[in-house]
Amino acid sequence: MVRERKFYDLLDVPVDASEADLKKAYRKKALRLHPDKGGDPDMFKEVTHAYEILSDPERRSIYDARGEAGLSEAGGMGGMDPQDLFSQLFGGGGGFFGGGGGRSQGPRKTKDLVHRVNVTLEDLYKGKTTKLALTRNVLCSKCHGKGGKEGAVKQCNNCSGRGVKVTLRQMGPMIQQIQSPCDDCSGTGEIINAKDRCNNCKGKKVLPDKKLLEVHIDKGMKGGQTIQFAGESDQAPGAQTGDVIIVIEEKQHDRFKRQDTDLFTDIEVDLLTALGGGQLSIKHLDDRILLINLVPGEVIRHDDIKVIHGQGMPSQRHHEPGDVYVKFRVIFPDHIDPAAIPMLEKALPPRKPLDKFPKNVLMEEVDLDEVDPRSRAHAMQDDPMDGEPEGEPRVQCANQ
Ligand SMILES: [Zn+2]
Ligand SMILES: [Zn+2]
């Protein structure tokens, strides 16, 4: 049995109302009583206070057992700004400092400054330190972020220092809460007399300032990784300074594709080298040349994939290198001297004999012509692999 019903009555709910019932009831009442909608500010405060107590299970049980008197004995009445509770419940908040939320959510923080940097694969392989110049606001050193002489800064009457005006608009059955910056104070919540304004910052409290940041791109970093500079974002009076966050964007490379610590590359090999062995070279990301010796007698086929261990990207933590996967593209000659063919016949496995056909099957000799590049059949010549993103199919092959 509850001792008092006052808070329940203020919200027009039964004493066994659920939390959802309470919220619904408060919403209904608060929208009607909101001072911006011409409601009675005292009544709005009372209803808000009732909701504040009843929506907190601990305080609700104290109220149920011992009434309002019990609450003040228990202490910690909290005195929350009814506007804040209202904003918390029904959205809004936000305001000027991206961090969101009303004053009840601890100190404001200025927006983090996010900056993307394009980094080449070469730089991610070797590591690099790069300098980044950025302009951010710092507190005016003359007025120390006050905007004017001591005492010159007055709270804006129009918005009671909130910087925003809340208007409620009926949209059919819905009531919409609209927040807009206060016109009188341009959303600052403060008014400074022109003659008392700080002449250094013109009353803005902050001034733009250039800052040079040294960004260390560590060996093996990847696209999407971030480097954080705590407290280097815009300063604002009374707010914690946000961070500068550098986001690494990995530039596409024309010879290498990367997957974690592995690199994938294509290499062309002429038919003679593919069949008879020889040397190939790959220019690495640090300009070293990787020299590949193809052993005579071991045939490299078109689209073969081989691996060079330990020459991939360094891992970020211990800089342990991954591997380089090499896919061979065998380049065939356009012509061959017919006089040389007997030597090929000696070297290569014999021709595959023609299939056997029954005697009664009609056989007709046909000509093979070059394909007109404008014809539709030309599409057949394209390697289907070329159309796809090259990294993935090659990985699949490599894992076979
Ligand atoms: Zn100033
Ligand atoms: Zn104002």
Description:
By secondary structure, the protein is α+β, with helices and mostly antiparallel strands. The protein has 3 domains: 6-90, Helix Hairpins (Orthogonal Bundle), CATH 1.10.287; 113-250, Urease metallochaperone UreE, N-terminal domain (HSP40/DNAj peptide-binding domain, Sandwich); 256-399, HSP40/DNAj peptide-binding domain (Sandwich), CATH 2.60.260.20. 23% of the residues lie in helices and 26% in strands. The protein has 10 helices and 17 strands. The strands form 7 sheets. Strands 12-13-17-16 form a 4-stranded mixed beta sheet. A 3-stranded mixed beta sheet has the order 2-11-9. A two-stranded parallel ribbon has the order 1-10. Strand 5 and strand 6 form a beta hairpin. Helix 2 runs antiparallel to helix 3. The protein starts with 5 loop residues before the first helix and ends with a helix. Residues 76-80, 91-104 and 384-400 have low confidence and may be disordered. The protein binds zinc ion (ZN) (2 copies). One zinc ion (ZN) binds at residues 156, 158-159, 182, 184-185, 189.
